[in-house]
Design a protein that fits this description.
Elements: H1 7-21, H2 32-38, E1 42-49, E2 53-55, E3 62-65, E4 67-72, E5 76-81, E6 84-86, E7 95-96, E8 103-106, E9 116-124, E10 127-130, E11 134-137, E12 152-155, E13 160-162, E14 174-178, E15 191-193, E16 199-201, E17 210-219, E18 224-227, E19 231-236, E20 246-252, E21 257-263, E22 268-271, E23 273-277, E24 281-286, E25 296-298, E26 303-306, E27 315-323, E28 326-344, E29 349-352, E30 357-360, E31 362-366, E32 370-375, E33 378-379, E34 385-388, E35 397-405, E36 408-419, E37 426-433, E38 438-440, E39 446-449, E40 461-463, E41 469-471, E42 480-488, E43 491-502, E44 509-512, E45 517-520, E46 535-539, E47 551-554, E48 557-560, E49 569-576, E50 581-591, E51 598-606, E52 609-615, E53 626-633, E54 642-648, E55 653-657, E56 663-671, E57 686-687, E58 698-703, E59 709-715, E60 728-735, E61 743-747, E62 751-755, E63 762-771, E64 774-775, E65 782-785, E66 796-802, E67 808-813, E68 826-836, E69 848-853, E70 858-861, E71 868-877, E72 889-892, E73 902-909, E74 914-919, E75 930-937, E76 948-952, E77 959-962, E78 970-978, ...
Parallel strand pairs: 2-11, 12-19, 21-28, 29-36, 37-43, 44-50
Antiparallel strand pairs: 1-4, 3-8, 5-6, 5-9, 7-8, 9-10, 9-11, 13-16, 14-17, 15-16, 17-18, 17-19, 20-23, 22-26, 24-27, 25-26, 27-28, 28-31, 30-34, 32-33, 32-35, 35-36, 38-41, 39-42, 40-41, 42-43, 45-48, 46-49, 47-48, 49-50, 51-52, 52-55, 53-54, 53-56, 56-57, 58-59, 59-62, 60-61, 60-63, 63-64, ...
Helix pairs in contact: 1-2
Subcellular location: Cell membrane; Secreted, Extracellular space, Extracellular matrix
Organism: Oreochromis niloticus (Nile tilapia)
Family: Belongs to the immunoglobulin superfamily. L1/neurofascin/NgCAM family.
């Protein structure tokens, strides 16, 4: 500020700048140290306060209730609690601070008396500022009530709900349903936890019976988990072993409609849990809209979550629960509400006497917030805007606007300062780069350029309502002094400001070697000489020629490709105009890894200690951060460099501590921010004298693979750590449990075996390194055990408790440690199936083993076959192996539900019938009492037919015919086997009934056709035989002796007629029943029965007897009955 002449003047000018800029800020913020110098008063302003909600968490030591404010004079503080005066200084338990409104509530007693709503008031003689309301909450420890809960008794297939009713507490609340053993209750389509914490069952099944349903309520913010009394559920099994199917209904929410209100930004959670059998499926949709992509479906589709709800998430949502028997639906009307937000937040203002002051306050929210005004903390009016006409100094105050609805409250303080006159003096200096914009601040509109009576005007100049002057695309000609004239009824004042315009000059750069550097130099083309290059670059003094491929100028930017060390230097940009020229310079520094150190020297050689010195190389504009010292030795790993030491980058020497009997040489490399540089040249060689070892072996391991041996192994010293020739190890050991001397052995390898040791006893071991120069330091003591042997005893008191049809609990008495002979590994349970209680002929099953690690005395054996007899033994094991097995324990598993039937198939399909066949399950898991056959129509539509059930009570049945089916329809069939416990899993098959009955495939029809064909063949054979054997008597003569009009008249119509006039046997006639019967007595034909009531029995055989005309014939003398062959 080149016009300042005194500290007093500088302070006043600073105040002027604040006042002129005040219109664009939201609060008067004049630094108090400035006001202290010139004693300008300032309204109080709240600068810090506690959040609206302050929770007294039990693990916090104290709870500060914050209220800080500034102003001139310094503000005084007072508090209200629940709208009543509250003085923290009157309570000796509270901690207070001087010149502050903050007080601290210590967590050392009953905090409940401090619970309430607090508000802070900061006041001085100009006004009162108030804070937001601060609610101090002391949470109670949530607890479930102590209660005795009756068991929940429910029929199988019926729905039920277990109530949680969690206690109130600080959110968030998390609900878990677990057993007493903290095993989570499995959730699926049938079982789920609701948003209210209740556990819902769509329908009960037998496995739901248990006595340890526990509801756990977790309150993470207060680090508390509480447990409700365990609940018991008893599921009564249906006598028919069939669950009655029913259409869905909703367990939650109740009714068909509900309304949901939530605050914008919260997660929208909608839930539908239904009951029914089969288990209903839940579908969701937003009516009239698609679900947004952010929506998540959880809890097996029963819960829809819309995270961070917005206004567009309001609307109607519908859930629909469906199963084959029907559906039910529920509609949610969702309204997303909003807490208050400022539309127009009241702003602090600095106004002149006599002006009109408008203080506007407007807030939005759902529901619409209520706006309340206060002045200096006292109530004023209700409305959006306060207007102060012809403002006076007495109107200076703190105005508070508070907007609230049921979702919250917002408060804003506006400091209104009425000034009697301007404080004015010389203004400030503004510097701007060409072609940029600048804003110079002033309160009034009267703005002149360079003391000219003409106002500033033009397209590049804009005067704002608050008097600020904005200049766009600044030019060099805009440099000069600007004056702002301020007037009011108290007088006038002028504020001067100086504007300087600068040319864009190239900037100093640090560039990595091998990359591209860009130096910018911009000037106004209108001021340049057309005949010459407008600008040029020079490096140092000589002119830089830019004709090479690595250098070129484009749009005022000088490019250097593939920067090298030679490009480093000072670059000058020369910009020429017709009147003069301007020069700007920039330093280009090239960054690279450091050069290798030089002049390495070994000094102060004192045995195994030596000093290494070096001269650092060029760091190439990036400071060296450290040096890396490497070594190479000629005996063990020649030409292999290894890191020895690192020292800081500000040092050029290092003290080296070396190993003995090693021929060394060294080199050094430097490190900076760019990377690690090349290593230096190697030093001359330096061989250290031999010495005793510096350390002993580490990682000592004691192992026992055999009962009377102990293997000792360790990690050997590195070759460079030998410190001398002939390295050996002294192994010392002794028993720990008895008094005995150390036994010592010296070995060259890194292992040793102690033989003839007792089995599994503790030993103390130490390993010490030595060479020709002597022993290493005193070794550390290590404890281990000799070799293990197999355990010699088996667990006693092995007992088996049957838990259910496939799980048993096994317990035993632990084996005494003296019988283990080693480290206990645990126990092993072996079991095998002796026989099935259904079919005792089945051979025993394979042996199974369960390993129980650690010192336990019980375990659960799963996956047993129901209704079987098993045998079981328990043994212990250690590192050597298994001990002897216990005495076998036999046990039987109860009945269970059968496995799936195999070979379930459709054997025949007709128009209205379907034949089914199956085989019993391979493992009935009990005594079969029958089968449950179900079927339903499943035509290719969304709707399916009702599920029909057939209870087959005879277990020996393996076929069934379903009748009265719809023709040309697709059906699905389900079959499961049942025991007294229940029915097993279903197997299924499908088929489509035909349009016409296919007789040709009927078994009875095929059999009938075969029988008829056989009968026809037999009759033909009989006729042929009788014809060949009937020549010994003449039917012709018989007819002549006994003429019969009817028989004679039949001639050509008779079955088995005469073929000609010769005497030949009658076709189809029967043999004589007795050789003594005369020829005339055997002439009857089947024609004799043609006019009688002939009958056939069920198998097709002929039944006839002599009657009517037959009685007149001689054949009536025949007593034997003659039958026709079937």
């Amino acid at each position: 500020m080149r016009l300042l002449r005194s500290p007093r003047l500088a302070t006043v000018l600073l105040v002027v700048i604040y006042i002129c800029a005040f219109h664009t800020t939201s609060a008067i913020d004049i630094p108090l140290e400035v006001l202290g110098h010139i004693n300008i008063v300032q309204l109080p302003t709240i600068t810090a306060q506690s959040p609206s909600t302050l929770i007294a968490f039990p693990f916090d030591e104290s709870f500060p209730v914050i209220c800080e404010a500034k102003g001139n004079p310094e503000p005084e503080f007072r508090w209200t609690k629940n709208d009543q005066e509250f003085d923290p200084f009157l309570d000796p338990r509270l901690m207070k601070e001087e010149n502050s409104g903050t007080f601290v509530i210590p967590n050392n007693g009953n905090l409940t008396e401090y619970q309430g709503t607090y508000r802070c008031y900061a006041s001085n003689k100009l006004g009162i500022a108030i804070s937001k309301e601060i609610e101090f909450i002391v949470p109670n420890v949530p607890k479930f009530p102590k209660e005795t809960l009756d068991p929940v008794v429910v029929e199988e297939g019926q729905p039920f709900t277990l109530k949680c009713d969690p206690p109130n507490g600080i959110p968030p609340l998390q609900i878990y349903w677990m057993t007493i053993n903290l095993q989570h209750i499995e959730q699926d389509q049938r079982v789920s936890v609701g948003l209210n914490g209740d556990l819902y069952f769509s329908h009960a099944v037998e496995k739901d019976s248990r006595r340890d349903y526990c509801c756990f309520a977790s309150f993470p913010r207060i680090r508390t988990i509480v447990q409700k009394t365990a609940m018991s559920v008893i599921v009564k099994t249906s006598r028919s072993n069939a669950i009655l199917e029913r259409k869905p209904s909703l367990l939650t929410p109740p009714g068909g409609k509900s309304e949901i209100q939530l605050v914008k930004g919260e997660d929208l959670n909608l839930e539908c849990i239904a009951e029914g059998f089969p288990t209903p499926q839940v579908e969701w949709k937003k009516m009239g809209h698609k679900f947004p992509s952010k929506v998540r479906f959880e809890n097996h589709g029963k819960l829809v979550i819309v995270p961070r709800a917005e206004q567009e998430d309001s609307g109607n949502y519908m859930c629909k629960a469906k199963n084959p028997l029907g559906e039910v639906q529920h509609t949610f009307t969702v309204t997303v509400e909003e807490p208050p937000e400022w539309v127009f937040e009241p702003e602090s203002q600095l106004s002149m006497i006599g002006s009109d002051v408008h203080i506007k306050c407007s807030a939005s929210g759902i529901p619409q917030p209520t706006t309340t005004w206060r002045v200096n903390g006292g109530p004023l009016v209700i409305g959006d805007t306060i207007v102060i006409h012809n403002a006076q100094v007495s109107d200076s105050a703190v105005y508070q606007c508070e907007a609230s609805n049921r979702h919250g409250t917002i408060l804003s303080n506006a400091n209104i300062m009425i000034m009697s006159k301007y404080i004015s003096d010389e203004g400030e200096e503004y510097s701007v780069v060409e072609r940029k914009g600048v804003t110079m601040h002033c309160k009034q509109r009267a703005v002149d350029l360079n003391d000219s009576p003409e106002s500033v005007h033009g397209p590049r100049f804009t005067v704002h309502e608050n008097g600020s002057l904005k200049i766009y695309n600044v030019e060099r000609g805009d440099t000069g002094q600007y004056t702002c004239l301020a007037k009011n009824t108290e007088g006038s004042s002028a504020i001067n400001a100086m504007l300087y315009v600068k040319v864009v000059a190239p900037e100093d750069q640090r560039i990595l070697i091998g990359t591209t550097a860009q130096l910018s130099c911009l000037a106004d083309p209108a001021d340049l000489i057309p005949a010459e290059k407008p600008f040029s670059f020079r490096k140092s003094i000589p002119r830089l020629h830019v004709s090479t491929d690595r250098y070129f100028v484009e749009n005022g930017v000088f490019h250097i490709m593939n920067v090298s060390h030679s490009d480093q230097g000072v670059y000058r940009c020369v910009a020429k105009t017709p009147a003069d020229q301007d020069v700007a310079s920039a330093l280009l520094m090239v960054l690279d890894v450091p050069d290798a150190p030089e002049n390495l020297v070994l000094s102060d050689r004192k045995g195994r200690n030596v000093t290494l010195k070096w001269v650092p190389g060029d760091d190439h504009n990036s400071s060296t951060t450290e040096f890396i010292i490497e070594y190479e030795e000629s005996h063990w790993e020649p030409s292999n460099w290894k890191e020895l030491l690192r020292v800081p980058g500000n040092r050029n020497s290092a003290e080296l501590r070396l190993n003995g009997n090693v021929d060394y040489c060294f080199r050094v490399s430097a490190v900076n921010a760019v990377g690690t540089g090349r290593p230096s040249e190697a030093t001359e060689r330096y061989k250290t004298p031999p010495e005793a070892p510096d350390r002993n072996p580490e990682n000592i391991r004691i192992e026992g693979h055999l009962p009377h041996e102990m293997d000792i192994k360790w990690e050997p010293l590195l070759p460079i750590e030998h410190n001398g020739p002939s390295l050996e190890y002294k192994v010392s050991y002794r028993r720990q449990d008895v008094e005995e001397d150390w036994k010592e052995h010296t070995v060259k390898r890194h292992s040793f075996v102690v033989r003839n040791t007792p089995t599994f006893v503790p030993y103390e071991i130490k390993i010490q390194a030595k060479n020709r120069q002597g022993f290493g330091p005193e070794p550390k003591l290590v404890t281990g055990y000799s070799g293990e042997d197999f355990p010699s005893a088996a667990p006693d008191n092995v007992a088996v408790k049957v838990m259910n049809s496939s799980v048993v609990k096994v317990s035993w008495t632990r084996v005494h440690k003296d019988k283990l002979h080693g480290h206990l590994g645990g126990y092993r349970i072996s079991w095998w199936r002796l026989r099935s209680l259904v079919d005792s002929k089945k051979s025993p099953g394979d042996k199974h083993t369960l390993t129980v690690p650690g010192d336990k005395n019980h375990a659960t054996v799963p996956s047993l076959t129901p209704f079987s007899e098993y045998s079981l033994i328990v043994m212990t094991f250690n590192g050597r192996g298994n001990g002897p097995g216990s005495h076998p324990v036999n046990f039987k598993t109860p009945e269970g539900v059968p496995e799936k039937n195999h070979d379930f198939r459709v054997t025949d399909v007709q128009r209205h019938t379907v034949s089914l066949a199956w085989k019993p399950p391979l493992e009935p898991n009990g005594i079969l009492i029958g089968y449950l056959l179900k079927y339903q129509l499943i035509n290719d539509t969304e709707e399916v037919g009702p599920l029909q059930t057939v209870d087959i009570s005879k277990p020996e049945t393996t076929t069934w015919i379903l009748r009265d089916l719809e023709p040309l329809s697709k059906y699905k069939f389900y079959l499961c086997s049942c025991t007294a416990v229940g029915c097993g899993p279903d197997v299924s098959d499908e088929c489509t009934t035909t349009l016409e009955t296919r007789i040709s495939t009927k078994g009875w029809f095929i059999g009938l056709m075969c029988a008829i064909a056989l009968l026809t063949l037999i009759v033909l054979i009989a006729c042929f035989v009788n014809r060949n054997k009937g020549g010994k008597y003449s039917v012709k003569e018989k007819e002549d002796l006994h003429p019969d009009v009817e028989s004679q008249g039949m001639n050509d119509d008779t079955f088995c007629e005469y073929s000609d006039n010769d005497e030949k046997p009658l076709k189809g006639s029967q043999h004589s029943l007795s050789r003594e019967i005369k020829a005339v007595e055997s002439g009857d034909s089947l024609v004799d029965y043609g006019d009688e009531d002939a009958q056939f029995n069920e198998d097709g055989s002929f039944i006839g007897e002599y009657a009517g005309r037959k009685e007149k014939r001689a054949s009536a003398e025949i007593k034997a009955t003659i039958q026709t062959p079937a």
